[in-house]
Amino acid sequence: MQFYRIGCISKPHGIQGGVKVEPLTDDVLRFRGLTEAYLEQSGTRRPVAIKTIRIGPDAVILCIEGIITREQAEAIRGAYICVDKANAVRLPPDRYFIADLIGCNVFGTHSKKYGKVTDVLQTGANDVYVVEGECRMLLPALKKVLHIVDTENKRIVLNEELVGEVAVFED
């Protein structure tokens, strides 16, 4: 089963087990209506029920069933709040989950293989795909360069004529 991290517990909030969560999603409102999630800590995930949610300007405050003291909340500091693929938000066209991009094979429109996406750097202006192959390539995720993005088949096709103009190659 595939999971998406949507937040990281940064610290306890209050004395009754609430936690402050730093969102790891573009849309903080994605927490609205969240009733079930997974708590990922030390390499394991367990299902949790979300009792209450408060969305603030820079964080989300959650109350998780079974976490009722500040000490229990402190014990899950640094843990991730995750959702499974079935409960992930639906993305608009031309938007992708980073986890789905990692591992995609990258080709040019003339069948040249560049390598695989190993990381996605979020720079603010646009994401940058890190492609590892014969050499390392940093590729800005621009619509004019991304000819086909097929995460289901783990395949990205680039407009090969533009790659040399926008990509940075490391030897």
Keywords for this entry:
6-stranded antiparallel beta barrel, SH3 type barrels, mainly beta, 10% helix, 7-stranded mixed sheet, 171 residues, 2 domains, Elongation Factor Tu (Ef-tu), domain 3
- Which percent range describes the beta-strand content? over 45%
Which CATH first-tier class of the largest domain would you pick? Mainly Beta
> Which fold name is given in CATH as the topology of the largest domain?
Elongation Factor Tu (Ef-tu), domain 3
CATH architecture of the largest domain: Beta Barrel
Uncertain residue ranges: none
The major sheet is characterized as: 7 strands, mixed
Rg over CA atoms, rounded to whole Å, is 19 Å
Total helices: the number is 3
- End-to-end span in angstroms? 36 Å
Secondary structure: helix percent: under 10%
Count of structural domains: 2
Overall morphology: elongated
Mean pLDDT: 92
Strand order of the largest sheet: 11-12-7-8-9-10-13
Question: How would you describe this protein?
Answer:
This protein has 171 residues and is mainly beta. It folds into 2 domains: 3-87, Elongation Factor Tu (Ef-tu), domain 3 (Beta Barrel), CATH 2.40.30.60; 98-170, SH3 type barrels, CATH 2.30.30. Helix content is 10%, strand content 48%. The protein has helices at residues 70-75, 98-101, 160-166, and strands at residues 3-13, 18-23, 36-41, 44-55, 60-64, 80-84, 105-108, 113-122, 127-132, 136-140, 146-150, 155-158, 168-170. It has a 7-stranded mixed β-sheet with strand order 11-12-7-8-9-10-13.
